């Protein structure tokens, strides 16, 4: 099993920055990729960015240039640096880990609220 704990959310003014952290524990050696997703009220959950165990990254096209995903393997932590935040970035941000151990699996964190005021 893998446990994910997100942190770093909060209230920020438009144009500001936040850095989210996703700390993984448990069977982290079997993780293939960790991604950040977000869900705004009344909307579907959407992929923000993901990073593979090899360091390859993938971003939602609309967020390229403002958001950066990175990882610290020594700390089993993935970060999401969010710059130039807009009110439409307001959402609950979730961390997701996926991997393979005989079968594919994924785990979700509890989510962290990001609110951007105008």
Describe how the helices and strands are arranged.
Elements: E1 2-7, E2 10-13, E3 18-26, E4 31-39, E5 46-52, E6 57-59, E7 67-72, E8 77-82, E9 91-100, E10 104-108, E11 112-117
Parallel strand pairs: 2-11
Antiparallel strand pairs: 1-3, 3-8, 4-5, 4-9, 5-6, 7-8, 9-10, 9-11
What are its keywords?
0% helix; 7-stranded mixed sheet; mainly beta; 60% strand; 118 residues
Polypeptide structure, described:
The strands form 2 sheets. Strands 2, 4, 5, 6, 9, 10 and 11 form a 7-stranded mixed β-sheet that branches. The protein has a 4-stranded antiparallel β-sheet with strand order 1-3-8-7, with no helix packed on it. Helix content is 0%, strand content 60%. The chain has no helices and 11 strands. The N and C termini lie far apart (40 Å). By secondary structure, it is mostly beta strands.
Tell me what portion of residues adopts beta-strand conformation: over 45%
Elements, N to C (H/E): EEEEEEEEEEE
Count of β-strands = 11
Based on helices, strands and strand pairing, what is the structural class? Answer: mainly beta
Q: Give the helix proportion (percent range).
A: under 10%
Biggest sheet descriptor: 7 strands, mixed
- In whole angstroms, the N-to-C terminal distance is 40 Å
- Residue windows where pLDDT falls under 50 for at least 5 positions: none
* Shape label: globular
In DSSP terms (H or I, runs of 4 or more residues), the helix count works out at 0
Summarize this, please?
By secondary structure, the protein is mainly beta. The chain is 0% helix and 60% strand.
